[in-house]
Amino acid sequence: MQADRRRVNAPPGGTTPPVFATPSNTPIARPVRSRQPDEHRKIFLRTGFVPSASGSAYYEIPPETTSQSKTLLIPSSSSLKITCTVHGPRPLPRNAAFSPNLLLSTHVKFAPFATRSRKGYVRDSSERDLGMHLESALRGVVIGERWPKSGCEVVITVLEGEEDGWWGDAQGAEKSGGWGMMGVLAGCITVASAALMDAGIDCVDMVSGGVAALASDERGNGTRIVLDPSPSEHDIKAACVVGYLQSRDEITEMWMKGNAGVQTEALIDEAVKAAVMTRSVLGEAVKESVELKANHTDRNVKEKGSANDVTMTG
Amino acid sequence: MQRVKNLDYDSDDLYSDDENDYDNDNDQTETYSAEDKHNFSTLTPVVRAELEEADVNVSEEISDKDIHDSLWFYYWDVEKCVAYLKNGKGGKKGGGEKVKEVKTKTKSKFELAAERSAVIADSIPPPLSAAEWFRDIPWTNVPLYMTGELVLAEPAPKKLKLLGGSSKLAKLAEERRRKAAAAAAQAPPSTADSTLSALDRLSKPKDANHIEPSTPKPEPKRYPIRKKREPTPPPRETTPPPVAHEEETLDLRAPPTAFGRALSMTTPHGSGCMSMALTDILGSDNNDDPFKGPSPDDTAEKSASTLEKKTEALKLESSGAPAAPQVKIKSKGLDVPALWTASEGNRKKSAAFVVIGHVDHGKSTLMGRLLLDTGAVAQRDIDRYKKQATEMGKASFALAWVMDTGSEERERGVTVDIAQHHFSTEKVDFTILDAPGHRDFVPNMIGGAAMADLAVLVVDANQLESGLKGQTREHILLARAVGLKRIIVAVNKLDSASPPWNKELFDSVSAVMARFLESAGFSEDDIAMVPCSGLNGENVVKPPPASGASAWVAQGQHRTLLDELSTNIPPPPSIETMKGPVRLQIADVFRGGITNPLSIAGRLSSGSLQTGDTIIIQPSGEKATIKSIEVNNHAKDWTIASQICTLHISPIDPIHLRTGDLLTTPTSQADITQSFTARLTILDSQSLLPQSVDLHLGRQHLSATITQLLAIHDVRTGEIIKRKPRVVKSGQCATVRFALNESIPLLKGMRVVLRSGGVTLASGFVEKVGI
C-alpha cells in the first residue's frame, strides 16, 4: 500500500527498541502519591503562543521529580501537555445554513506519541467523545448570540496525555481503562477557556476544569477522595470531571465514571474544589496575557503617534 | 331598626355610629324581656368576678348598669364584655363615662364643631408687643445658619401612559397598575419562616435564613425539601475554598518544562517572527549588515541580470500597496531625432510588413517557414507543433502554429487576429504582421495593414480565381487604401501544382496579379513577384536546388522572398515626421508581466517617445508615464516614428485604454470631434448614399453616418464636377461629411476605409476635422 506522503510515517522496517540495563536489585515500585489528598499538582498555563491563531494557549502539568525517577529512565508518572488554538469568530461558509448564534466546534486530537499506546492519525471514538464533552463545557460560557452567522473552532492537540495506569502493572494497564482521559478533559476545559479569552470571545465567566477521584486508601481498607489524581499512583474506583464557573457557581459539564456509591455528591464537591484551584492559575494566565496585550498596543500607539493623524480635506 | 351605615359620616364617626345603634336599641328596648333580665342576673356576678380577678375596683367604678349595657352590647359574651370594661376603666375615662355620655347625649354636629373651635381658641397665646413679636428677626444680616437655599424642584418625571385615556386598553392597563400597586402595599412584611411548617424548619439547613424572605412557599410540603443551589444568586461561595487552599492556589503555578519554555517563551503575538518581510530574506540594500553590497558571486552573475529582475519584481509585489511611493521615472531629456541620425551608420534597418491574401493560401505557414529558416524559431518548437498538429489531424498546419498562438486559431486552422513576430537578418530587423485572411476578420486586417511599411501578398498559384474573387482582391484594395505603396507577391504552393513548379503557371499568375495590382493603383516598380513554397521552404530564405523541377527559379533571376523583403525596405521617415507631434494608435493593450502590469503596443506614426515621458490617452484624456520602452523585444530608452513599439506605462486605469485610442503628449493633443469631412474614392461596383457605414481608422473601427455628400471631384485633377450629388457611383471621387456616434481624436490626412455589410465601399483620407 502506498504510504501517506503528507505525514511523518514510521520507518518502513521494524526497529529494535533500546534496552537499558538496570541493576537487578532496582526496585520497580508503584509510585506513591506524595501530595496531600486535597493538593493539586502545579500547572503551567500561557496564552498566545500561536501568533497566527485568534487565540491559543498551552497547558502543562510538569512531571514531579521523585527519587525513583532518578534511578529509572522511565518516568514513574506521566505529565500532561495540551495545546489549544481558537480560530474565529469567522464567517460561516457561504453554503452553510443561517445560524442566529455562534457555531462552536471542538476538535480534540491526541498526538500519535501522546500516550503509551500509539494513537492513529484519524480521531478515534475516545477523542471524539472528549470533543463532545469539551463542547458542552464551553457552550455554557460562550455568549453565542453576539455572533450570528459565525463559526468558531477550538482545536486541541494533546501532546502528552495522562497515563491510564501504572506502566509496571501490566495487566492493570489493560483493565483500568480511561482514567487518564478524565485528567485530560479537565486540562482541555481549562486550556480551551484560556484560549477563548485570548481570542477575545465574550464569555459569561471563565470555565475551569477540575477532576477528583475515589481511590482505595493505601493505608487502610477503605476509600478516600483525592483531588487531581495521577492514575499511576492510585487504584481508582470512580472519578469525576467538572467544568465549573466559580463566580456564578454553575457547572457546565460533568462527567463521572465508575461507581462512587454514596460518596457521589462528595466526589462532585471535591472536583469542584479542584476546579476552583485550577481557576486561580487560569485567572493569572489571562491577566498576564491581557497585560502583555495592553503593553503591546500601548507601544504601538506610541510608535505610530502622529502617523495616525488624519488631515481632513474638503 | 336601621342597620345601614350612613356613608356621609367620616370614618372616625364609626364608633359613634355604633353608639347610635346602641342608643336606638336602648330607646326601643327600654324594658328588657324576662329572658334578658334572667341573663343579666346570672351573668353580672360572673363579670364582676372576672373584673375582680383583673384587679379592677368594681364597686367604685363599674355599676351594674354598665355591666348590663356592655353585656347587652356584646350579646352575652362575658369575655369581650370584661375586656371592654377593663379597657374603659384602665383609660380612666373609659367605657363607663363614654357610655354615660352616649346615654345623655345626642350632640349635633354643629355642637361638636363649636366645641372643637373652642379648644383651639384656648390654645391661642395672649397678644404680644411688636418688639416681642419680631424679637429674633435679623433684619438684614442673616446669620449663616439661617440662610436657606432655593432649589428648583424638578418636576416629577411623567409616567409613561398609553395615549387615549378613554380606550379600553388604557383602562385595562390602568386597572392592572392599580392592582399591582395595591398588591405591593398589601404585601405583608411577614417572615417566610412563619409560613414554613415545623417539619420544613427542621429539615432546613443551617443557613436557611439566607433565603430571600419573599420566596414563595405556598403550602407546606409533604416531604422535607432539599435545599437547591440557586443558579444565579449573587456570588456566594456555597463551597468556599478553605483559606489554606487560597494560599495554595497561588503556588499552583508551575514553571514550564524545557519543552513548554521553548514553545511559549517567544514574545506573545509574534512581534518578532511575523514582521520578517520578504526584503529581509532577499537582503535589501537598507539593512545594515556587514556584508553590504554585492558579494563576489553577485558581481560574477551581474551579467545574468534575470535574477535581479525577479527579485525586483518580488519586491514590488511585496510592497504592493498602492500608497507606496512609486519610483518616479525621470525623462532623460534625450534629443531623440539627433540620436537617430547619429546612429545612422551602425544601425540595422527595420521594416514591418503585413502578410495578406485569401484564406487558406498559406500566409501563416509561409511566415512560419520564414521564421524557422531565419532562426527566430527553433526546430524543436516546430517539431513539437508538428506532433501536436498531427494529433489534431492537421499536420500541415504545424508551421502556421508559430504565428497562430490562440487555441481557437489552432483548432480552426484560421488566423483570427493580427499576430506580431520579430526576426532579424544580418542587415534588417523585420516585424511580421500576420493578417487574417478570412473575410469575417477584415477589420483586423485593416488594423494590421495600417501598421505596416510594405505588404506581402500570398497567392495560391492553384487557386488564383477564388482568391481574386474573394479576399485577395479586397486585401489589395485595402492595402492600397491604408497607404501601402510596396507589395511583394509570393506565388505560393508551387510544389503542389501539376506538374510541380510549373513555370507557365507562375508566369500566368504573375501576369494576372501585375495587371490587377496596377489597376488597383500600385506602380509597376513597387511590385515584386516571388515563386515559393511555404510548406517546403523553397525560395523562401534559401534558393531552391539548382537541379530539379524548380531549377528555373534560380536561373530566372527570381530572388528569394527574404531577399525581396530586404531590398524593398522603404526609406525611413523624414526628420520632420520624427520631430512632429507624437501620434501612436494603440493596437493592443495587455499585461506585460509582473513588473509591467499595463502595457500598450502600436506603431508610432510620427514624433518620438522616451522613458519618463508623460503621455495622454485620447479620447479619455487620462495621463500616464512611460516606464519603459521595448522595440523588437529589446528594452530601449527611446522610440521614434515608424517603429512598432511596446510601451510599459504606469499609473493609469486600464478602463481608459482601448484598442484604437490615440496616444499623444500633453503639448500636442489631437482634436476630438464627432464629425469630419473625408475625400473618398468609391470602389468598383459600389455606390455611396447618405447612409450608415462602418468606419475603419487603422485599428479603430466604429459606426458612422454619412450626413452629406458634398461634392464629386474629377479623379485626376481633383476639380469639383458636381456639388451636392444624390449618389456617388463606383470609381468616382467625392467629398463626404460624416457624423460619429462618439467623440474620437482625428487627424487630418488619416486614412479611412468605409465598409458596410462585410463589403468594402470606399477608402480615402480625412480632409477636414470638425464641421
From TrEMBL, chain A:
Gene Ontology MF terms: RNA binding
Domain of life: Eukaryota
Homology family: Belongs to the RNase PH family.
UniProt key word Mitochondrion: no
Organism: Acrodontium crateriforme
Pfam families noted in UniProt: RNase_PH
Single biological process term from Gene Ontology: rRNA processing
Localisation: Cytoplasm; Nucleus
UniProt keyword terms in alphabetical order: Cytoplasm, Exosome, Nucleus, RNA-binding, rRNA processing
The keyword rRNA-binding appears for this protein: no
Cross-referenced SUPFAM superfamilies: Ribonuclease PH domain 2-like, Ribosomal protein S5 domain 2-like
Primary subcellular site in the record, as a coarse category: cytoplasm
Protein name: Exoribonuclease phosphorolytic domain-containing protein
TM stretches of this protein: none
Segments of this protein annotated with the region Disordered: 1-38
A cellular-component GO term for this protein: nuclear exosome (RNase complex)
Domain Exoribonuclease phosphorolytic as annotated: residue spans: 39-201
UniProtKB/TrEMBL annotation, chain B:
Family designation: Belongs to the TRAFAC class translation factor GTPase superfamily. Classic translation factor GTPase family. EF-Tu/EF-1A subfamily.
Catalytic activity line of the entry: GTP + H2O = GDP + phosphate + H(+)
Superkingdom of origin: Eukaryota
Protein location: Cytoplasm
A Gene Ontology biological process term: regulation of translation
Matches recorded under InterPro entries: G_TR_CS (IPR031157), GTP-eEF1A_C (IPR054696), HBS1-like_N (IPR015033), P-loop_NTPase (IPR027417), Small_GTP-bd (IPR005225), T_Tr_GTP-bd_dom (IPR000795), TRAFAC_GTPase_members (IPR050100), Transl_B-barrel_sf (IPR009000)
Membrane-spanning intervals of the chain: none
Swiss-Prot/TrEMBL keywords: Cytoplasm, GTP-binding, Hydrolase, Nucleotide-binding, Protein biosynthesis, Translation regulation
Domain called Tr-type G: residue spans: 348-574
UniProt feature, compositional bias: Acidic residues: 9-28
Organism listed in the record: Acrodontium crateriforme
Protein name: Elongation factor 1 alpha-like protein
NCBIfam families found in the cross-reference section: small_GTP
Single GO MF annotation: GTP binding
Subunit structure of this chain's protein: Component of the Dom34-Hbs1 complex, also named Pelota-HBS1L complex, composed of dom34 and hbs1.
Organism lineage string: Eukaryota, Fungi, Dikarya, Ascomycota, Pezizomycotina
